[in-house]
């Protein structure tokens, strides 16, 4: 019998989505528990993740109700760390290459995504910076790591580097297509136009491959995300 694995997540969270994708790609059975981030249950920080954020997982121990986690299970948070743990748990999934150089490329790609793509993206989308220049610089850095015409971040198969960036790419697309964000009106569409330049073709081609992956397509609720962002941004502006 495989050990139990429970994922604590939220549909709005790209970081939770990363874990869902890795588990789907590895074809792993697990229990998903949606944490109400707007009314967080006390037991979540007390028993699962002291900083109260999703994603988090429990692994092993008895198969219990997710609302009453067992002290006997292993608890883990931080999406990049969970991704690596999942890949190590299921080595046959190929989510993390065995070759040290390929492995390092995957981990470096993930680090670049977090520092240079996700971070400036959040700043801009949250209206904490006036321009998307930092974000676009991140696109260029990611693009610099991609091989010409490759459908994967590293090598010729899906790894946790892809799972790390894919949810951000789907949200990126919603942003420039709908113009919903904390930035000045029109900047989302402007970014979308700018990305059509031939110099970003490699990035967009890779992004499209990720968006077409069944693991993402089946778990990507663009309409829900757009509606929730609109609601949250409107509430914040009032
Ligand atoms: N660095 C963390 C970020 C996790 C994170 O920010 N999660 C957000 C949802 S997207 C959250 O749980 N927010 C609830 C809170 O801060 O109370 C990771 O990669 O897992």
TrEMBL record:
Residues 3-94 form the GST N-terminal domain. InterPro entries: Glutathione-S-Trfase_C-like, Glutathione-S-Trfase_C_sf, Glutathione_S-Trfase, Glutathione_S-Trfase_N, GST_omega, GST_Omega/HSP26, Thioredoxin-like_sf. The keyword Oxidoreductase applies. GO terms for cellular component: cytoplasm. CDD domains: GST_N_family. Residues 99-232 form the GST C-terminal domain. One of its GO terms (molecular function) is glutathione transferase activity. This is GST N-terminal domain-containing protein. The keyword Oxidoreductase applies. Keywords: Oxidoreductase.
